[in-house]
């Protein structure tokens, strides 16, 4: 496997491209977010992933504004919260997110959860296509969609989301969804890519890390890259933010990839999208 020297970009089905490694700010407290985002951008990250529900969009926007990196050089993603699903409420929620972020367009907007009990994700996505047509969001996608939600969305709108951002790590490698995404032309994006930190002390991961002279987090991020996943590790710690981006100078072997594959248990760390209908 060839080693890229810079953060590769993943081409999306709409022709846009997204830097493969980004900074995620889920569970980053608002008071730490501005510094985390600025640190990341100054370290070379060009992709930041937040959400209305994280309560840190304003701080994310401030981190971007204070980083010295130009807005057009950063791929900025946020997500529509569950209680805002529906056509008109989506348009209002989008405006509110842009206001908080202090920007006048988004690189990507995602439906955070399908919320199947509400059955509003199709109307929500129609509002996304309107925002896309207006040029206010460049790419539109979804998060936590199961195969039946993707199929229903595509059947109803004729539009294939650019991305599905799902829980994905070695315990839950999501073979079925990754294969479906490949077939449909949807990019796979991994949330909780480090297993929320739980995999960082796994002896298989630390053993591989030792062999390569890298950290456990770097090995996990590289594993995602080898699978073609877009990956958004979270950290509030400046040294870790920097070191999580130092992943472009080594390769995992086939044997490393097989050892990591043996960690699969099917364990979910987050909610099951088929039953998660929380609007709080
Ligand atoms: P912290 O924010 O204190 O650095 P995930 O992205 O899978 O949700 O994992 C995030 C968790 O992993 C957080 O608890 C984060 O803690 C921790 N983490 C992220 N990067 C590293 C790293 N390089 N070394 C140790 N822990 C890390």
TrEMBL record:
It comes from the Bacteria. Residues 22-263 form the NADP-dependent oxidoreductase domain. The keyword Electron transport does not apply. Gene3D superfamilies: NADP-dependent oxidoreductase domain (3.20.20.100). The keyword Membrane does not apply. One of its GO terms (molecular function) is oxidoreductase activity. Keywords: NADP, Oxidoreductase. Its EC number is 1.1.1.346. SUPFAM superfamilies: NAD(P)-linked oxidoreductase. InterPro entries: AKR, Aldo/ket_reductase_CS, NAD(P)_OxRdtase_dom_sf, NADP_OxRdtase_dom. Pfam families: Aldo_ket_red. PANTHER family: 2,5-DIKETO-D-GLUCONIC ACID REDUCTASE (PTHR43827), NADP-DEPENDENT OXIDOREDUCTASE DOMAIN-CONTAINING PROTEIN (PTHR43827:SF3). Belongs to the aldo/keto reductase family. This is 2,5-diketo-D-gluconate reductase A. It comes from Mycolicibacterium frederiksbergense.
């Amino acid at each position: 496997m060839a080693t890229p020297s810079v953060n590769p970009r993943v081409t999306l089905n709409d022709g846009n491209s997204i830097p493969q490694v980004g900074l995620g700010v889920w569970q980053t407290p608002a008071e730490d977010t501005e510094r985390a985002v600025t640190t990341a951008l100054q370290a070379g990250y060009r992709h930041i992933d937040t959400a209305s529900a994280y309560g840190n969009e304003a701080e994310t926007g401030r981190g971007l504004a204070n980083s010295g990196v130009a807005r057009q050089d950063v791929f900025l993603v946020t997500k529509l919260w569950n209680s805002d699903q529906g056509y008109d409420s989506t348009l209002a929620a989008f405006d509110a997110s842009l206001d908080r972020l202090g920007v006048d367009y988004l690189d990507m907007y995602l439906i955070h959860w399908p919320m199947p009990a509400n059955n509003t994700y199709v109307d929500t996505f129609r509002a996304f296509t309107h925002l896309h047509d207006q040029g206010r969001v460049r790419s539109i996608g979804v998060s936590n969609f199961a195969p039946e939600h993707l199929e229903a969305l595509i059947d109803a709108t004729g539009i294939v989301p650019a991305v599905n951002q799902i829980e994905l790590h070695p315990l839950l490698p999501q073979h079925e969804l990754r294969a479906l995404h490949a077939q449909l032309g949807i990019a796979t994006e991994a949330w909780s890519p480090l297993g929320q930190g739980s995999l960082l002390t796994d002896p298989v991961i630390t053993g591989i890390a030792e062999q390569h002279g890298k950290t456990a987090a770097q090995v996990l991020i590289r594993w995602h890259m080898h699978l073609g996943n877009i990956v958004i590790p979270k950290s509030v710690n400046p040294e870790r933010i920097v070191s999580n981006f130092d992943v472009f100078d080594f390769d995992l072997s086939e044997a490393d990839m097989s050892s990591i594959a043996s960690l699969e248990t099917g364990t979910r760390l987050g909610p099951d999208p088929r039953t998660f209908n929380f609007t709080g």
